[in-house]
Amino acid sequence: MSLTSSLYTGVTGLITYGKSLSVIGNNLANVNTVGFKHSRAEFADLLTTSEGHVEIGHGVRLADTSRLFTQGALQTTESVTDLAIQGNGLFVVKDAAGGTYYTRAGQFHTDKLGHLINPEGYTVQGFQVDETGRPVGGLGNITLGDGVSAPPTITSKLTLTANLDAGSSKPKADWPGGAGTDASQQEWLAASNFSTSVTAYDSLGQGHDMTFLFRKTDVNKWEYRAVTPIKDVEADPKNPDNWKAVGDGSLEFTSDGKIDTKASKLNDISLTGLVNGAADLTISAANLSVAGFTQYAQPSAVSLIQQDGAASGALVGIAIDQQGIVTGRFSNGSSRTLYRVALAEFPSVEGLLPVGNTLFAQSSESGNALIGTPGTGGFGTVVSGGLELSTVDVTQEFVSLIASQRGFQVNSRIVTVADQLYEEVANLKR
């Protein structure tokens, strides 16, 4: 009975170490697989039997192959949508049927619809966020396509900085009139010493050219008019090439050429009745800054024009920070936060079910997914432009390979010796 048992004991060793070699081979095969977590073969002895007072074992079995979710080394890439996790957590992705999977492999890119996807076409999940990065909705697809745009911003503030030539003389021609007056461009320019243009944006994102005209009236005293093409504010003007005054005011300077803000008088600038249907565009006197103006004996010139409006903009690029916040950059120069990448953690991450393509599925052994965001709670941070490499240590795997190979050899020797003993038993009858 013991002789027969020794054969089966040797066979269990051959089977078990053969499986161990498969585990090691799988690890080595995935040495360059992004996000791959290596596995370890775990052995256990078989139930023993008692013969008298002697306990006799019956071999070995492969008890489990545990996947070790250790941190992999990070590799820098040139793609901002390549993501790596530094710390705990897995990316959440969904297939076309709505199935949810989890992965550490962050080789993501956008498809033709703008969805952020992995190489298998599964969509990366995240939360839409407000300007502070706080989620404003539930978990959903991260979409960065043509539908993402920045709304226009109406101009409400304007800053002008310029030098007005102190040597200028008062023009012979007078202003055609104050705010609300329209006249030809030639009339306005003839009454001016200097002019400069500013583009202001209405609520629809359309730009309107405003020309600021400056006229010297006396020593250290100037007047200005803000004019715009009349066709922007009147549907059927009698003279469509005329300019209409939409604001006026006066500037006074001290004897050393600096603006006297208390003596200067600024009025509201207002474009009403815009023919494109946009809301009235108003820049209040309080939001019109001329604090940087000077009057020196130098040619008149503008040094600064700033306004806070913008046309609508298309998405031209993104950035992803360590907290997983996706910020969009738009063609109008603005930027805003769009999404926050979601991460998942499990009570037992080792219990996840591998389904191939470096993807995992939730199982009864892993427990339910805990969904959060990078940098919060126990979740790790995200590295944009980086990938987590395989955790396979080639040196260690070769050592394990040799150990499993020797285990296989010695167990095959047990079978050989048991066979020789059977042969001796069979020869006893001769």
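The above is record 1. Record 2 follows with the same two-line structure.
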Amino acid sequence: MYITGGIGASRKHEAFADDYALPNDGYCESCAACGLADFAHRMLMLNADARSADILERVLYNAVLHGIALDGKSFYYRNPPHDANHPRGNNWCCCPPTLSRTVLKLGKYIYTYDAGSIYVNLYAAGETDIALPENTVTIIQQTDYPWDGKVRIIVNPETQTNLSINLRIPGWCRKAQLKLNGAEFKQFALHKGYVTIKRQWQENDTLELDLAMPVDRIEAHPNVKADTGLVAIQRGPIVYGLEALDNNGKLDLTLPAELHFETEYRPEFLGGVAVIKGKSADNRTFTAIPFYVLANRKKSSQIVWLPQEGKIENPAVWQDKLYRRLDPGALTR
């Protein structure tokens, strides 16, 4: 699996390749991402393990959304991490309806439940009614997730009820705070990636979850030769990439070993996204945007994996290989 949740690296038969063969111009068909989301959900239903929800979240927020233009009128068949002037289109075959029905299944993905437990798998503002055998419980989420890690969950059972509510602590999160009706949990244990609050719930009981969401640099598995010496940028569940349009038409950047990131939420930009800014090793300012909004403006090149000082002996050699694969003219249009 790619860091974006894309799968199926081989153009031949749109298939998996050898172990750890993840070239950054790989195939990553949109329908394959939708299949992975559905598979992760089915595994979650079987094992109630947050690792399955982590995969579900990664593929939904990155590979699946990347397949659909922001205006909903054009699509991608392929979703490689690195691309050059690949126009959206594809309004006629399998990917548009498969992407649409995957997004429309979001309500089934957010919550799962059994007779005595409710699992909150994904965080998204909204309201739902969950019909348990002896009670109906209304759950209200108030949050700006994934741009902010603060989530407020209001629990409204029809009548007071003993119930376990299980909140997923994402695998990417290294620090979380939790409050119940204003009182902070000094410590809490996780079981399969969920924190369980079992009690008698009554109207307007409120949980407040605060998930630390710093900008992280991610390394690929060392067996992924295509990403040797490279890092990707991720914040919360969102994988970021650089688009030439935001970086003076160039993507020949090397990150310094020590790097300070700045995050800024722009409500009017690309439907409302948080952008990340930093400075390259040669002191050039760069801007990274979420992978899923790449290629929603003019034709442009995009890149997810970047060289970093100290991780690759000669970043220029890697960049030369990249630019021979991408169309050099595309980087300056």
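The radius of gyration is 21 Å.
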